[in-house]
Amino acid sequence: MRIATTWLCCCSGCHVSMLDLHERLLKLFEDVELVHCPVLMDVKEIPDDVDVALIEGGIRNEENVEVAEELREKAEVVVALGTCACYGGVPGLANLFSNEELLEAVYVETASTENEEGTIPSEGVPELTWRVHPFSDVIEVDYELPGCPPEPDRIAEVLEAILEGEEPELPGYNLCEECPREKREEGLIIPEIRRPVEGEPDPDRCLLEQGYLCMGPATRAGCGARCPKAGVPCTGCAGPTDRSVDQGARMLSTIASAFRADEDEVDPGELVERLRDPVSWFCRFTLPASLIPFRVDR
Known about the structure:
Number of domains: 2
């Protein structure tokens, strides 16, 4: 089987995760010919007759579009590798601003930028798309493997399933179902909203029940709840489960319904004040794939 990989608007962390397979990667290569991989090979052109293409990163400029379309044309199977490819990822928060605002901030207004003329580069620079897109907005994707980055074993499982002619499967349940922290049997009650740096969380109890904004109820399982186990609230990097149309809306609904659920009267203004930046909280990794994927007043 001929496999090609590439990265677009991303940090290349998904490729590093793939390399973290270590000896298992060598075992996988017994049945695989790697024909294009920027992290391992100095190959400029994408070859023809690719069986599987793994594409990391979202769509941010016209060059990204061209590469994605070329791989779709040359590959029998395309896998969106990582959350940026599946949902837009953290770079998707740029959709809250216009391209003009972004370029002005980066090349003119930023204090550390040395640009005496105040010019914005244009010659030889790919034109930005009007917003960040997940891959499925531009090309047909056969399989999506979210995660920031995906777990190495999960990457191997997907590739092995494709090699064997089987359908890769991802967990359909949310992160809470694999989190070992204790939950109340009588239902979720959120007494207050805390920032991660506020207080010392109980090491055994559900973080969300303690007021820490853990995205577990709205996030696909598969990582083993690594962050909550370490006392860090889940940030939602694996994206929504199959049962959620919009990860951010799902989480906001959970918070709104459980905020001081044992009290008769709750001030909605207090909840809004404590959330402060709900887009960054709830759509940090999935804004481009959400129901409202960009700033609506543009």
